[in-house]
Amino acid sequence: MRIFVAGATGAIGRRLVPMLVNAGHSVVGMTRSPGKASALRATGAEPVVVDALDALAVQAAVRQARPEVVVHQLTALPAMLDFRKIEQQFAMTNRLRTEGTDHLLAAALDVGARRFVAQSYAGWPYARTGGPVKTEEDALDARPPAALRATLKAIGHLETAVTGASGIEGIVLRYGGFYGPGNYIGMGGAAVGQIRQRRVPIVGHGTGIWSFIHIDDAARATRAAIERGEQGIYNIVDDDPARVSAWLSVLASILGAKPPRRVPVWLARFLIGEQGVMFMTQARGASNAKAKRELGWQPVWASWRKGFVRELGENRPAVDRGAERVASVA
Ligand SMILES: NC(=O)c1ccc[n+]([C@@H]2O[C@H](COP(=O)([O-])OP(=O)(O)OC[C@H]3O[C@@H](n4cnc5c(N)ncnc54)[C@H](OP(=O)(O)O)[C@@H]3O)[C@@H](O)[C@H]2O)c1
Q: Helix 55-65 and helix 101-110: axis angle, to 10°?
């Protein structure tokens, strides 16, 4: 198939594009940076340099590519999330999820593409009521903390525009928290450094539930959705939604760090804001049953417990340990 990937150089794009090329697809990869074009070409993709917020340029690039499938993996997240500044940190990502989605979707419809696959997020956007693990049928949070309202609205815009589009199969992939190469939780990742320094505490009883996904499992699920997904929403998460108190303690131990500090909720409100407290104490996890059933996909790393050890443990493959030395020197 001919596939246009917007966000080809991002955390997931870097893993997805070579996977698609190796599977025999013809890939056009979009970036803003001329400097990243040669790296894209080296993976076997045809690079195109376009700003996703420039509607006419997006339309021209998609017209030239004539893809059967358009993939939207655009975000603009910082090297490390600061829960207190989440509103500012998500501002550009919100534009990519609203204006960026509209431009790409219009361009895909314009060329008669048959499928559109877009990135969303599983986890804290789900309503903080009812059970700990949510399916795609469950409601999103109607009353998120103030600092998350714009972000949730942008996610809602993307999901409604994509799944409601007519004349194209619109697919939304709600990924869990990424880990693995090039991610916050990965070699040289910012979260790893912070956890080593005991700067990520367990808030209250650490009752928030997080769903993770290895970045390569996310890429494999995305390939499945590109090839055989059907209109609608899929949670792309592993089999093991976990309380913050569990995964944070296990990760600290894998990293050889001291156990995470504990901070009461009242103090955490000052340190990380209402939204940070929500992530750490009220967030919900997600179920991957639909993706397994309908995409014929299942995660190689069924639990973050093994995946974190594979990526960050003492006995990870030697090639990875070399890469970490490079990351710590850079
Ligand atoms: N579910 C999750 O947990 C999740 C999801 C996404 C990201 N993250 C995290 O966020 C961090 C950064 O993610 P990332 O590496 O994907 O980086 P990113 O900086 O968010 O980039 C994502 C992609 O969007 C493209 N892009 C951004 N703005 C654009 C624009 N105006 N026009 C065209 N393209 C644009 C970038 O292209 P160029 O820079 O080449 O122009 C890049 O290919 C990672 O630690 C990752 O784990 C987590």
A: 40
Q: Given the CA of residue 122, which atom of ligand 1 is nearest to it?
A: 1
3-state secondary structure of 14: helix
Q: What is the CATH number of the domain that holds 94?
A: 3.40.50.720
Q: Which of 4, 5, 9, 119 to mutate to test the pocket of ligand 1 (most atoms within 8 A of CB)?
A: 9
- Does the CB atom of residue 177 touch ligand 1 within 6 A? yes
Contacts of 266 by beta carbon, 8 Å cutoff, 6+ apart: none
Q: What's the angle, vertex CA 153, arms to CA 150 and CA 159, rounded to 5?
A: 145
Query: What's the whole-model pTM score?
Result: 0.95
Task: Check if 80 has its Cβ closer than 6 Å to any atom of ligand 1.
Answer: no
Q: Is 202 helix (H, G, I), strand (E, B) or coil?
A: strand
Q: What is the DSSP letter of 99?
A: I
| CA-12 nearest atom, ligand 1 | 16
Indicate the Cα dihedral angle 230, 240, 125, 6, nearest 10°. Answer: -50
Residue 26, domain extent:
2-329
96 lines ligand 1 (CB under 6 A): yes
Which of 75, 81, 187 gets mutated to test ligand 1 (max ligand atoms within 8 A of its CB)? 75
Ligand 1 pocket member 33 (CB < 6 A): yes
Whether 8 lines ligand 1, by a CB cut-off of 6 Å, is: yes
pLDDT tens, residue order, the chain (330 aa): 999 999 999 999 999 999 999 999 999 999 999 999 999 999 999 999 999 999 999 999 999 999 999 999 999 999 888 999 999 999 999 999 999 999 999 999 999 999 999 999 998 999 999 999 999 999 999 999 999 999 999 999 999 999 999 999 999 999 999 999 999 999 999 999 999 999 999 999 999 999 999 999 999 999 999 999 999 999 999 999 999 999 999 999 999 999 999 999 999 999 999 999 999 999 999 999 999 999 999 999 999 999 999 999 986 765 554 444 433 332
Q: How many domains does the chain have?
A: 1
